[in-house]
Specification:
There is one protein chain. This protein is 95% helix and 0% strand. It is mainly α and 88 residues long. The termini are far apart.
Amino acid sequence: AKAIIDQYKKQGEEAKARILKEAESAAEKIQDQARRNMEYELKEASTKIQVEIIEKALAKAESIIKGKISSKDQDRLIEDYLKKVEAQ
């Protein structure tokens, strides 16, 4: 009877070790996935911020240029552009 009890204890300890190892492996996989998700979201947020900054900078530059170019300057720029197009 003692041999049977010892055998069951051994099997129980082996099962416990296997379950703990599987749980640790699953936890590592979850942590890795969470880390990858955070890195992806950080890149997405960074890209979005960069796009917003560029759009605002372009809008500001356009506003400044519009404020400094007179209609006479604009006409001259159009004429210069058309001459370049015709020359090609």
